[in-house]
Specification:
10 helices; TIM Barrel; 9-stranded parallel β-sheet; binds zinc ion; globular; single chain
């Protein structure tokens, strides 16, 4: 079973293990890439996290997450910018290939999604020089529109690429199939992302029917309605050669199973996406 090119987003086993144990388990299963979350790093301390990554020979496909730029006032927006700079410093220490951005929704009390999107654009511009100075590019992750209110007012790959295009180099996209699989323009926009050299990450899981929880009921690849082999062909045709990251939040299913079973299943289903 092939593990080369597979990355495990550590949210997938967040209930089973702390970061050092999760990384060690990935190594045992022959996995060589991970994507940790900030709270998982904070729980053990940055130095311990860096040592665990290094000792297990892991590479870091991304760091989750920065973003959350919109805020009700200037002080709030500045606090978000400062927090993103700290996230970039942590990402650099971990050797992460990019900082994954969940850009944020509408500020409290606002009904102006256009203004929120402008705050995202301005926040990205404010953080970008720091990203360049530490050598960690910014990966805008468009989220499914059901999250536009509270998590991300950037919802399509086209919108993300347009934003990145206004900012220049060192900004790209994290393409998470869960969020973009429904978009009739997605094939064309994946090709565009490749042409513009902006694909910084590729995340997979599956869309379950029915989905029982808007956040914590993501499916294991192969258990839902997304044609993942087709997505793989599109991503490869766009020239992307980086890792494929499995990222699953699953409060009632995968988070309740033994971690080794989860990793074994991830490897098997990752292999199935090549069929
Ligand atoms: Zn993702």
């Amino acid at each position: 079973m092939k593990t080369e090119g597979l990355s495990i987003n550590l949210a997938t086993v967040r209930q089973q293990w702390k970061l050092p144990e999760a990384v060690e388990a990935c190594r045992r299963h022959g996995i060589t890439w991970v994507d940790p979350w900030r709270d998982q790093v904070a729980a053990v301390g940055l130095d311990t996290a860096v040592k665990a990554i290094k000792d297990n020979g892991m590479r870091v496909s991304g760091y989750c997450r920065g973003g959350m730029f919109p805020a009700a006032d200037a002080a709030g927006r500045q606090a978000a910018i400062d927090d993103n700079k700290r996230a970039l410093d942590e990402a650099a220490a971990l050797g992460a290939k990019c900082l994954v951005l969940v850009v944020g929704g509408l500020p409290q009390g606002s009904r102006d999604i256009g203004a929120a999107r402008q705050m995202v654009q301005d926040g990205l511009a404010a953080v970008l020089p720091h990203a360049r100075s530490v050598g960690v590019p910014l990966a805008i992750e468009p989220l499914h529109p059901m999250y536009a209110g509270d998590r991300a007012c950037v919802n399509t790959l086209k919108q993300s690429l347009d934003m990145a295009g206004q900012l220049g180099d060192d900004v790209g996209v994290a393409i998470d199939v869960y969020h973009v699989w429904w978009d009739p323009e997605v094939e064309a926009q994946i090709a565009r992302a490749g042409r513009e050299k902006r694909i910084l990450g590729y995340h997979i899981c599956d869309w379950l029917v029915p989905t029982k929880d808007l956040l914590l009921d993501r499916g294991m690849p192969g258990d839902g309605v997304v044609d993942l082999p087709r997505f793989r062909r599109w991503i490869e045709a766009a020239g992307y050669t980086g890792p494929t990251e499995i990222e699953i939040f699953s409060a009632k299913d995968w988070w309740t199973r033994p971690g080794d079973e989860v990793l074994e299943t991830c490897i098997a289903r990752y292999n199935d996406t090549f069929k």
